[in-house]
Amino acid sequence: MTSIAFIGLGHMGAPMAANLVKSGVMVKVFDLVPEAMKSLTDVGALAAKSACGAASGADVVITMLPAGKHVRALYLGEGSSDKGLLDVLAAGTLLIDCSTIDAQSAKHVAEVAASKGFEFVDAPVSGGTAGAAAGTLTFICGGSDSGFEQASKVLSHMGANILHAGGPGAGQVAKICNNMLLSVLMIATSESLQMGIDHGLDPKVLSEIMKVSSGGNWTLDKYNPCPDVMESVPSSNGYQGGFMVDLMVKDLGLSQEAALLTNSCTPMGALARSLYVNHARQGNGTRDFSSIFEQFSNIQ
Amino acid sequence: MTSIAFIGLGHMGAPMAANLVKSGVMVKVFDLVPEAMKSLTDVGALAAKSACGAASGADVVITMLPAGKHVRALYLGEGSSDKGLLDVLAAGTLLIDCSTIDAQSAKHVAEVAASKGFEFVDAPVSGGTAGAAAGTLTFICGGSDSGFEQASKVLSHMGANILHAGGPGAGQVAKICNNMLLSVLMIATSESLQMGIDHGLDPKVLSEIMKVSSGGNWTLDKYNPCPDVMESVPSSNGYQGGFMVDLMVKDLGLSQEAALLTNSCTPMGALARSLYVNHARQGNGTRDFSSIFEQFSNIQ
Amino acid sequence: MTSIAFIGLGHMGAPMAANLVKSGVMVKVFDLVPEAMKSLTDVGALAAKSACGAASGADVVITMLPAGKHVRALYLGEGSSDKGLLDVLAAGTLLIDCSTIDAQSAKHVAEVAASKGFEFVDAPVSGGTAGAAAGTLTFICGGSDSGFEQASKVLSHMGANILHAGGPGAGQVAKICNNMLLSVLMIATSESLQMGIDHGLDPKVLSEIMKVSSGGNWTLDKYNPCPDVMESVPSSNGYQGGFMVDLMVKDLGLSQEAALLTNSCTPMGALARSLYVNHARQGNGTRDFSSIFEQFSNIQ
Amino acid sequence: MTSIAFIGLGHMGAPMAANLVKSGVMVKVFDLVPEAMKSLTDVGALAAKSACGAASGADVVITMLPAGKHVRALYLGEGSSDKGLLDVLAAGTLLIDCSTIDAQSAKHVAEVAASKGFEFVDAPVSGGTAGAAAGTLTFICGGSDSGFEQASKVLSHMGANILHAGGPGAGQVAKICNNMLLSVLMIATSESLQMGIDHGLDPKVLSEIMKVSSGGNWTLDKYNPCPDVMESVPSSNGYQGGFMVDLMVKDLGLSQEAALLTNSCTPMGALARSLYVNHARQGNGTRDFSSIFEQFSNIQ
């Protein structure tokens, strides 16, 4: 039986780890926040006293951390008083980082890991907290074919789609390409719906029309930003829950960082970042990202 | 048996009228261009010597014209030496305008038509020349319920989806909302794909990933702008055919005109218009609108 | 001695007319708002009972109205139950329209005026209410050389700069080109200053540096948007007074209308319109247009 | 008599060093390119065999390098097989870095320098190659008051304006704030002029009008982007010379990097970067940055 270490039990990590526990494998968890730990031990996970303690002896290590510097600190020991996991773990341990971080950090950790005999897979997720709880996340993976194959088996307990984007770091690149695109879909759908409303159209009817026409996109299918068009989405619930504006701002920052590296031209993505940063700065950081709709609808 | 007048046999009108002929109804056509007329009489349509000649005695009049001023000239006689159709035709004739024009003109003609006892339906199309030829167009209609019901029967010979957006003019509004959104989808998908390519990803793999993720949209499903990702789309055929840049520029102009009328805020749509106008001014006006991809990919 | 009719006594028109009165000419005024009339008769203007009554017998007619439709209604009688001034006044009366309106209307009225023997000069103003009160406005004129020459003498009592942009309508075009540019200067200066502040720079020091460098522009010289950098500007007075956001939105609407007519590509101007419409929709319509600075500075 | 080391003799560095030589001080130079060295020894500079050789014994070291990594390599030895200058030079040597680099690198080198007893001043320049040749550059400095005071004396031989933006790194921040603003001024002025031209206005007349109105900005005063409006500017010389598009792309990259660090919202700057990257990718990288005008004027 496989034993898995899960490090990082935030809004996403906690429900993901809980699904792993439910799948029947032994899960040892660690987080700096005691309450986060308790929520997992309550459902059957074992508690470790440190990240290293969780990882030692595990067959698979899964990490879900906020940013590239945390991932480099944990695996490489960069800027940390502790040794990195790569200096401590037994070679052969499968390493899966589900954090959304910059591709450069992911590539760098993967290279060091490979040089020490580890498979390292970057596997950022898509699908939000609802998908994490339901076990229907999408994982977008970067790494070798064999690494991806091994990781898929583990990730299948937490997600519905496990995709292979390419070599080390490719998971991160594909994730931010996707989320940059998503941010534009959300804004453009919002402004189109509101323009229709301004001209007297019913947003439900207009949504149905665009959904089956060439304007069709994920936000119309699953996540309509206009209140009361769809049930059970954040826009019909005061923009609570879902995927926070602050997280979209983070992903758009990563996308623009990536664009600078390769001198890529992303006018829509750059504008989306400006609009989301502005939205966050107006106090909407913890609301769902579909609340950008209000930037177009609010009339004083 | 219904007799139908079809006026305006351009790139879209001609194949649409041909499908009507194939459906078995009697179709009388008119266009100022003799070659356009011939292509229809070759397949069985009757030729008229004038728009009025085509329309006289028809049960249904369908028009497919370039702009609002042509529609107003034909139906109302505005700025024309001829009488308008509304002053000539028998009340009760069903009038269907499939042109993509400004909503104000559509509403105005519909009002005058109603005052004289006609049903007038604005029914702009979506789907391009390929859809026109295949009879798989989407019609987005504005008008009364009864007008829509009657028009649906006729339009079903030329399209696969007949949608009712609302009252008079609503078809035009919904169409430009949709096409504004589409233009943004196309650009944002292009820049996201190219950013992935710039970072070493395979555009086919990245397209597959985004298609099933939250970046999913019509352009990834049906019309990938990156050459050689999909077969049988303009991007894999030198950006020939499909929906011309100049037509997208026209629709984006209509969308911005509409935004000005209602003081709507459409930052993405406005940027899309700028990028498409720029693209057209660089000599790409007659290429397919997915050729905007080259604005992001070309490296000298 | 010249007698002048002044029609339209709003925030701009009233102080302009008052300066004319002070210059010693006889001024007959009209406005629909009695209080506006009283403010002028208090300083020595004569009151007329109608626009036509003010204009009859005047050597010069000056109009300051909200939009093109009002100008067309007054001069041409379009959509009005009254005859147009052009059908009533003695040929030879000099007509000066200081309104900011669409160039098409200005050109059209000028053409009709010319056909009836009038010189018509479009002379929109720049400089805000402060400039109107101080008599330091800039007039940007369109019309014939002789029309401009005559108009200049009159306008010199109300402004410091009388500029000739070209033939009929050119004043309006130049005005909206200028104001489109101004809106971008204001936003770009705001975001640059705030980025400096975000990095710890003193906005006064940064303003001084950019003012003498290649970032130098009118807003840094005369109208710094960052509070407490300059004295006696709206930003140091809670963004009261000055040039209202709603008026900038109006001018940006005219600029985008003009861009659509000629298929011009104005990405910065289009983005500026979106940002100002958004700002207005958030309840800032009556504040000074430099308050857009808060869109970049506000942190919750 | 002061002896100065000048390291980095590119398009900007070479004429700057030449002006130092002309001022009468002893200048020892180093560059990796022999031709660059020769152009300076021809006018009286002494040649060194290495950067370190130039700097040893100098009272002042001036560097003009392409990017932050080169500055860190030279001063700190980062990623280099040589020791850093800070480990070699006598404490007390005044260090002036005129490169345009990221503010973080500038701050970091300044901190290490301070810890070892050096004054380090970041002094990026503005004014282009023409300003470098004429000795009329603007230096925007970051550093202590005493460091700035000492540096000013040296820089005055190469520039007309020596400005103090704040502490370490502030010169770099102010420079990229300014250049981000400049890029927007250039684009917005271009699109406004072209819109005027599209409506029949004379760009010379329109330029004169906007120059004295609220659209006034540096590009209208010194660097009109429309051909044949001003003499002796790149736009009247096929966009040769001046400040290259590729350098503007570099500065806009630095500005967006800075915006990401502080979560600043810079919609105009972000759009300007997209438009300039696009312009560069179309083969205009080595032309003057005012050639962006052609993006708005070209009609096929």
UniProtKB/TrEMBL annotation, chains A, B, C, D:
Its EC number is 1.1.1.31. Belongs to the HIBADH-related family. The keyword Protein biosynthesis does not apply. Pathway: Amino-acid degradation; L-valine degradation. GO terms for biological process: L-valine catabolic process. This is 3-hydroxyisobutyrate dehydrogenase. Residues 3-166 form the 6-phosphogluconate dehydrogenase NADP-binding domain. The active site is at residue 175. The keyword Heme does not apply. Residues 169-293 form the 3-hydroxyisobutyrate dehydrogenase-like NAD-binding domain. Keywords: Branched-chain amino acid catabolism, NAD, Oxidoreductase. One of its GO terms (molecular function) is 3-hydroxyisobutyrate dehydrogenase activity. Pfam families: NAD_binding_11 (PF14833), NAD_binding_2 (PF03446). It is an enzyme of class 1 (oxidoreductase). It catalyses: 3-hydroxy-2-methylpropanoate + NAD(+) = 2-methyl-3-oxopropanoate + NADH + H(+).
